[in-house]
Amino acid sequence: MVVTRFAPSPTGYLHIGGLRTALFSYLWARKNGGKFLLRIEDTDKARNSQEAAEAIVKAFHWLGLEHDGEITYQSQRDDIYAIYIKQLLDSGNAYKCYMSREELDALRETQMANKERTKYNGKYRDFTGTVPEGIEPVIRIKAPLSGEIIVRDGVKGDISFQAEDILDDFVIARGDGSPTYNFVVAIDDHLMGVTEVIRGDDHLSNTPKQIVVYEALGFDVPKFYHVPMIHNHEGKKLSKRDGATDVMAYKEMGYTPEALLNFLVRLGWSHGDQEIFSMDEMQELFNPKDINKSASIYNTEKLDWLNAHYIKNMPNGKLADLLEEHGLLLASHDKKEILLDALKDRAKTIKEMALLVNEIIVAPVSYDEKAIAKSFKSDAVEVLNAFAAKIATCSELHLPSDYHHLMQEVVDEMGIGFGKIGQPLRLALLGKMSGPGLDAVMAIIGKDETIARIDKAITAHS
RNA sequence: GGCCCCGUCGUCUAGCGGUAAGGAUCCAUGGUUUUCAUCCAUGUUACAGGAGUUCGAUUCUCCUCGGGGUCACCA
Known about the structure:
Radius of gyration: 32 Å
Mean pLDDT: 94
CATH architecture of the largest domain: 3-Layer(aba) Sandwich
Low-confidence stretches: none
CATH class of the largest domain: Alpha Beta
Strand content: 5-15%
Number of strands: 12
């Protein structure tokens, strides 16, 4: 059974980087018929973990990712951690350290002055004398002082660390008794039955410490996959400014879950040349062994393209629902299908599409002056009047093709090219020179509105 | 600074000793379209540098350079 987990610290929302590791973990669990667990790393009790968890679950829900089982809150597991602290103390794998903050600071300063690595000096490791008064001791684990620690990483390969380079007897419980990160991670992953840890490679250098904990407790070490970071345009860690914002902001901006997930799954992972992945395909094809070793740069050009792709291929009913979330009520519009068909391959986001819809159903309040000067001369008025007169006499006008036939008739009768009617008509209906097919526009707004807009434009420019 | 990781078009990436270094995006051009967008076609652009190993290196090794991560009683 493959068990993965997503273990965010409660910053209050889920961002792009976190979402990607969550997605990878989710896909790998689903592919193997395993479990995808959620744990909130809130050993720092100052923050409201409940709120953070809700925000993350909400984002997962929007994207269609569901975690299995109950959410684990580290802040509620102190009694569990206490058992393991005691176990290590009893077995002699950990000890109380009475060094004061001042003494520790002084030690560091000396080491820095001597250009040495800053590390705890092991003063209380095998201490037998009398203990200082008035100090709440921290608990330190006895880490190996020499030798090699190998992290077997599924992405990067085997990585070797020398204990003397990176380890010291690090703190596993603070003076107030609360446990620290590297300690609880190992315990929780073990207790939750996590078999594969997929996380950002900023955790790579923590891993040897966690391995020390696993081994001190006699736990099996899980399989690790450290996925490279996502960088911003400057090549630095992603910050709020450049994309590490709340994932839900992408919903606000009009991106679809399909596009966002597809975009993220291809950031750092690939399956040959394939670009488009449905959720089913992702679950079928994802394998962490195909994750890249190098960091990637966050750039939304491809996200825009993917979003446009998914909008283009979306059933109209679903599209209407999404538009409704952006404040556009289309349910009662009798020409909804024509409208959506005319616009769905023109928008990069749902939000943009909502704007495009409004550009059609709301009459223009101004006209492109340059285009008016060029294409709205007296002969154009004549053509428009002829066309308006023609549609006024027709009673059954519903489809784009109905309007197209009438435009064709006018063109034929007057012996002119299509451009002679198209350009002025477009200006009259939309106020500008771009937009969807005019026959569709007219079918959407209807005969009366078409005539009204033609009259209005002629009045305004004669 | 110590330790660790990384280095193919601007960007996302394929490649796993022999390729005209492929795809996607972006950009440009052409076609389609009454317009714009879509769509289709075409095109510009990449193996960080230097030594090895080898008949042959983008691919393997080492060095340099460059970038990133991490060094807490934060997670």
